[in-house]
Queue: 4 jobs
Job 1
Amino acid sequence: MEEKSDQVQDYLSLLEQEMAFYASKLNDKSLKTLYIGGGTPNLIGAENLIKIIEAAEIHFDMENLAELSFEFNPYPEEEIYDIIRKLQARFAKKYPRIRFSFGIQSFDNEVLTLSGRKSLFLGLVDFLRGLQPLKTDSTVFNFDFIAFGKRNTTKKGNRQLRNQPALTFFQNFVNSQFADSFSLYTLELFENQLWKKKNEKLISGEFFGTDEDIYEEFSLLKDILLDAGYSRYELSNFSLASKSSIHNRVYREMEDYIGIGLNSASFLNAKNLNPDLLSAFNLSDFDGKALRFKNTISFEQYCKGDFLDPKAFEVLNQQDYLIESFFLGLRTDRGVRNLEHFAPILVPNYLEKITSYQEQGFVTYNEETQHLQLTDAGMDVFNAIVTDIMAEI
C-alpha cells in the first residue's frame, strides 16, 4: 500500500510539472471547465483530487470556472460518498457547479455480469439511495447507461427487455428527476470498450442483442427520458433544463482544452498556439487552423518528463476544421449556424437534400439565419444524414 501511495504522489508531481509547462506557454490560461475522468477519481481518493485541483488553481486562471467534473464507477460505495462529501466541502462555495458522472451501464444482472461489472442490480439500488443525501443545488449527478439490446419476444409477439423489473426501476428512477442528466450509448458506440475488444462474442448477438435489438432498446430508453422531461442536447446525452455538461459543450463546439496525464487528448485553436509553444512541440512551421495532440500512453516515458506522443500531432487545415466543426456541431441541439460557410465541404445539392430531410421531419432549417438543426428523429439517423450531405468525412 505504501508503494502504491508513493507512485500516486510521484504521478501527482508529474501532473503538476505538466501544468506548469502549459501555464508558462499558453496565451490564455483561463479555464472554463476542469474534468477528471478515466477512472482516476476512484483510484486516488478525495485528498489527491483536491491536490490536483489546487495545483490547477496555482497554474491557471480559474476565477470564472463554470464546472468541476468527475467520472466514477459506482463502487466501492462508501469511498465514493466520502469523496463527494469532501469535494463539496472544499469547492461547493467556490465554484458554481460540481458534476459527478457515474457509469451505471445497466440494471440487468446478466448484462452487468457479462460486461465484467462489480455491482449488480440491488447494489446499484443501494448506491443510488446513498447518493440522495448528497444532492445539493450546486451538485449535478449524471448517470451513464448502455443499450445492450437484451430483448425477447413474448408469446403475444411483443418485443420487450428481458428483465422487466429492471426496466420498471429505470423508468421510476428517471421519472423521479433525481438525476440531472443521463448519457445513453448504444453498445458499439460506447467509448470505453476494452472489455469488448477482449471478447467479441459479447456483441455478436450471442450474449447481447443484434444491432436491431440494440437500437430498439436505445429508442425505448430514450423515449422514457424524453417523456420524463429530459432534453436531448447531443446524440447520446440528455438533461434537465440548464444541466447539460459544460465540458461536453466545450468539446463539441471546438473550444480549447488541454489534457493532463497519461494518454490524455488536447485541442488548441491557432490563436492559442504562440511561437514559444509551437517551438516546444517542434512545430515551428505550423500553418493550420488548429492542432490536436495526445500524451504518451507509456508510464515510463511520462515519468521521464516526455509527456507528449510525438506521433499523435494532427494539424487541422481550413478544410479539416470545417469538417470537424460541422460534424461535431450537428450532433448537438444547437446545430450549425451560417450553413453557407460550410459549403466547401458539402455536396453541391446540399440545400435540396436539407429540404427533403426537413419535409421528413429529420431537420429544421431557417433560411434567413442559415441555421441547421437535427430533430430528435434526425439525431437517430445522424450518420446517414451527414454522410449524405457532406462531400467527405
Job 2
Amino acid sequence: MAYPTIDGPYGLRPVNLIGGQVFAGATRQRRIYSSSASSIGFGDPVKFDSNGCIVVCTETTAAPTTGFAGVFMGCTFVSSVTGQPTFSQAWIANTSVASNTNIIAYVCEDPDQLFQVCGVSGTTVVSTTSGFTYTDIGLNVSMVANTLNTTTKDSRYAVDIASGATTQTLPLRVIDVVPDTAFTYSGTIYYPEIIVKFNAAYVVQATGVVTGGHAYNNPVGL
C-alpha cells in the first residue's frame, strides 16, 4: 500500500485532547501588540509578552519561562487601507491597522490539547530514511522554529527527529505516532509525524523556580 508523503512541516495542528476528549474547535481571543515585529503563522506556538499580548514562541529546546499561551489559529484586524475588518490566517509583522483598533488573535489554548506535528532532519527537511519510532513515545522533543510560509500563511514549525530524550526541559512530550504516513526503510518502520502535547512545568532545583509548561499550569506570573 502506498502511504501519503509529507513535503514539509506545517506547524502544530490541534487533534483531540488527552483522555480521548473531543476537540470542538474552541479558541480564546488574545491581542497582538500593534508594534509587534514578529509574524505569526497558522499553527505557530505562541507565548505572552509583558503587555499581556501574544508573540510567536522562538524557544526550541525549552518552553518559555512562564509557559506557552497556546497555538495561533488566525487573527482579525481593521485595515487602515480599507477601513474594513480583515480576517487572516497569519499576522504579518508591521501590517498597518486602523487607529484605536485591536488586533485579535485566535488561540487554541487548552492545556490538555494534543497536536499533530511533522518531524524534520534539518530546518524543513522531511527525511526519507529516518524518523520517529515507537520507542520515542513518552520521550520529550525539541522544536524547530522555521518562519511561516508567506504564500499559504501556514506555520512551518516542526520537531527534531533526533531530539527524543528524557530531558525535563524539552518543550514537547511525544504522546503517539501517526501511522497514516509511516514508511519502511532498511527494515525499520519510521513515522514522520507524531502527536505531542506541551510538556509539564518543572522546578529548577537550584532556585526552586517553576518554569516551562503551559502558562495556565505555571504559577509564575508575567
Job 3
Amino acid sequence: RLTPADLDGGTFTVTSLASTVVDAFTPIINPPQAAILGVGRVRDTVGFTASGPVPRRVTTLSLTFDHRLNDGAPAARLLGRIVELVERPYVLVGA
C-alpha cells in the first residue's frame, strides 16, 4: 500500500479498480501531480462488425488532469494514444 510520501515527486498516477465490480469512476488528482488515469474493471460485452455480433472485452479509462497546466485537447490526445496502445499493443514493438 502506497503512502502519501510515496507519491512525492510524481507527475502522473495510474489507479485501478479492475479487481472490483466498478465499471467507471472519477479519479482525484494527488497534488501537485498533473494527471491521474483511472482504470475500471474489464467486462464482457457484444460488439458489432460487418460480419455480425462478436464478443468483446472492454474497460473504461477515465483521465483527470489539472486544467491549469493544459486544456482538454492534449489530454484527449494522450487518452486516445493510451487506448490505441491497449487495443493494439504490438504497435509498441513496431510489429
Job 4
Amino acid sequence: MRFLRRLLRHSNSHEHNDFAAFLHRQGAFVAQKTVLDYCRVKVGRNEKEFFGNPDFSAALNHCRWQVFLAAQSDVMALAEAWLRPLWPGQEQILLEHLVTLHAAIMAKEEPPEAEKQAFTASLAALPGHLAGLQLAPPHSAISLPLLAEAPLFATLPIHADQRKGEGPSIRGALRFHIVSTQQEMERGFDPAALSIRLREQGRNPA
C-alpha cells in the first residue's frame, strides 16, 4: 500500500496540455454518461429499437451536443475554482489561461452544422461565465452551479411527461460525475506545479 501511495503521489502531472486534455475528456464523459445512462434506463429492453429510430437518434445527438458544450464549460469552471487560491491577485490571468486552453482543445471538435451556432456561443460565453464565478469564493464540485443542467432537461429525448418525479435523480447523476471529475483532477494533477507551468506558458506561448 505504501508503494501504491508513492506511485500515485509521483504520477501527478503539471503539464498544461495534459490538463487541457483531461478537462476535455471529462467534459465529454460527464455529458455522454449522464445522457446515455438515463436514456438506456428509460427505454430498457427497447434500446435497439429506440436508438435505431432516426428521429430518436437525431434528438439524442442534439441532446448530447448541447450537454457536451455546457459540461465543457462546467469542468473549466471546476478547474478555475480549484486553481484560484494559488493565483491571489491574478485571477484574471488565470481566467485567460483557462479560456486559451479551452479554445485550443475545442478547436479540434467538428460540430454538426445544426450545432455550430451553439458551439460558437459556448466559446464566447466562457470568459464571462468564469468572471461571474470569480465574484464569489471558489465553489466545490458539490456547490458549483452547473450550466449543463438546463440543456440536459431541455433536450433529453424522453418526453417530460415520462420524467415526472425523476428530476432529483437526473440532477444527482450529473452532479455525481462532476464530483468524480474533481476527485480525478485532485488525484492526477499538482495544482501548484500546474500553476507555475501555466504562468510559464503564458510568458512563452508555443
